[in-house]
């Protein structure tokens, strides 16, 4: 059996903040629609840093950095990942469409695409909209999106925590987009 040894932080070859700011990011924007938990927001920042997300759009009641409670889960990623604030999520979606993004709500909808069936296209830019912890993505926002993606679930619960959903979605987009580079 081979020796399994945890790596020291100095062995991980992580980017510096300056290198992160300069590196080519994924053509992916994460939109948080009325997300209320500072811990969820921080976790989305941290995951977005890990997978080179281009930007996070914080909308409505979603808090913006800096904030000590957000920092507990973001661990500094709120300073590396670019972000923008919009009072209305609809304005964020309009801007994304005007900038050539395909905008997809992460929501359980009639006609949604199951995550394992999602096909991404080389050269396209994508944005994913994640909703409020209780109400999900606002219907008015869903109506503006180019489609919906649903994570297949097999147990008795019909939803996942928004930061868990973000982690699954960001990983899947990163995995597929890195292959298209």
From TrEMBL:
- CDD domains reported for this sequence: SpoU-like (cd18097)
Per UniProt, residues of the tRNA/rRNA methyltransferase SpoU type domain are 28-170
One MF annotation (Gene Ontology) recorded for this entry: RNA binding
> Is Methyltransferase included in the keywords of this UniProt record?
yes
Q: Specify the domain of life of the species encoding this protein.
A: Bacteria
Q: Which organism is it from?
A: Phocaeicola plebeius
Name of the featured protein: RNA methyltransferase
Gene Ontology CC, one term: cytosol
Keywords tagged on the record:
Methyltransferase, Transferase
In terms of Pfam families, this protein maps to: SpoU_methylase
- Write out the GO biological process terms: methylation; RNA processing
């Amino acid at each position: 059996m081979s020796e399994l040894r945890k790596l020291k932080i100095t062995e991980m070859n992580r980017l510096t903040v300056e290198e992160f700011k300069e590196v080519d990011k994924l053509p992916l924007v994460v939109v948080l629609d009325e997300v209320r938990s500072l811990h969820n927001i921080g976790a989305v920042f941290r995951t977005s840093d890990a997978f080179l997300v281009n930007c996070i759009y914080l909308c409505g009641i979603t808090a913006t950095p800096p904030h000590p409670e957000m920092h507990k889960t973001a661990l500094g990623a709120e300073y590396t990942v670019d972000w923008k604030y919009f009072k209305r999520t609809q304005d964020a979606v309009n801007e994304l469409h005007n900038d050539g993004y395909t905008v997809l709500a992460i929501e359980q909808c009639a006609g949604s695409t199951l995550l394992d069936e999602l096909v991404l296209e080389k050269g396209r830019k994508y944005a994913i909209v994640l909703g409020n912890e209780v109400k999900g993505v606002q219907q008015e926002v869903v109506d503006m999106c180019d489609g919906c993606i649903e994570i297949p679930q097999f147990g008795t619960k019909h939803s996942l925590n928004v930061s868990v959903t973000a982690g699954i979605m960001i990983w899947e987009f990163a995995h597929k987009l890195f292959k298209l580079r």
